[in-house]
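Review form for a predicted model. The reviewer records the input and the model, then writes brief findings.
Reviewer: anonymous (R2)
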Amino acid sequence: MVHESIIPVCHYFVFAEPTANLLHLFRVAFFVTLTLQSIVVVMLNVMNYFINSTWMQRYQSNISENGLTLLWSTIVSIFTLGGLVGVSIGSTLSVKLGRRGTLLTNNCFSVMAALLMGLSAFAGSFELLIIGRLLCGINAGVALCVEPMYLGEIAPTALRGAMGMGTSIFLTVGIVSGQVMGLEEILGREEYWPFLLATTCIPAFLQLLFLPWFPESPRYLFIDRGNDEGCRKGKVFILHGLAGSEGALKDIQAEKNNLVGFKARKPWELLADRSVRWQVITIILLNAAQQLNGVNAMYFYTQYVFQQSGIPTDKIPYATVGTGACECLTALTCGLLVECLGRKVLIAGGYILMSVCCILFTLTLALQHVSPVFPYLSVACVFAFVLSFGLGPGGVTNILTTELFTQTSRPAAFMIAGSVNWLSFFFIGLVFPFIVIGLQHYCFLVFFVVCSTVAIYILAAIPETKNKSFLEIQNEFQSSKKKTDVLPDEAEALLVSTSL
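Model under review:
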């Protein structure tokens, strides 16, 4: 069975905090991350039937097999193209409209997509489905670019990692929600698929209802817009509380002083700047690895290993929900541990565990028919791999993209990281079927190389960023690499800054 999973960006975020002001910060995160797109799961044969019947009504003939494949492939892949477009415009909009303003505007794409996809069956138009998928991708691309940036900028330093994990936690909540909604007992029946697709508008409406009540990023107001008064009048106090507002203002003021005269940078300017070369290399490598580490391939094999372990075919969707629930649980665990263990331990440990799982999964697949116990071991490897991914790589990647750059470089960094992520997503979707045909279950040896290489790089090259200001992280990166090049003015200013 082949089915499609549209990447979810339906987030929320929950953490316990006794103070009223940090509770307000939680509410900001909750409703900001309550975005942008629901997950839907539509079986291939349902879509094929819709395309066939629509073609027959129009042209009184059956569509060719190649034509059907082309249309289905377009519906699937156009989402990735939309994501790439969304990343490209998201960083620009975040500078012009602000972080909150961009997230509010972005809901228009989700609402329009839900309308078009929901009406596609009634209108007998697969073109509406394609356009809706494109708008869904744009919505997801903008969201994944701007939302982690916003959460990272409004969070207190001590809670920045936990706040940043909100993206990963409720990304996985979206996956589980979509898997549950796609069950036959709910919206998984053939006649309900337009309503399933239209559920993408629900988080968008919730965000449009609640997000206007919450403040814009103080760093954006203070540094990018020079709106000192707007930042001081309540924004920092609301987000950080009375005790933390003074320190937060000093941190923002110090960063602004070191960036006087600098405007938001373009991606090509960031790529050409040798002073942030290792930060750029890091986010490119981590975002590429997030798609190329084999987690999508593992989901591809779930049905096979579940069948081999004796799970009835009609019960496999429920087992698949279990894998999504495991990833969600692990992401939540990572959110609780990220401020305790640090970013480096979690993301490096996650990739090391994934490397081990790749080897074990390859062995258990090769020995499926040797003993009845090996199919069950394969199932255990699937869950262990997904848990390892959720433990670090799934969420910490976005946190590091936020923390490794200062205010004027951050939008461009997210554009670069997002573009690499979406292009890698497209690449693995295009190439993976050929890898499976050529290597079969030994394809996981390729993912072992990816995971182990990234783990070594993290351990060797990335400093710990826990409980450090953005300036301190920047300075430590520069110091750890012992750069001898003549640095641009902005980097020089950062290096002589006073760490808080």
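Findings: The radius of gyration is 23 Å.
Further findings: Residues 174 and 369 are 36 Å apart (CA to CA).
Recommendation: see findings above.
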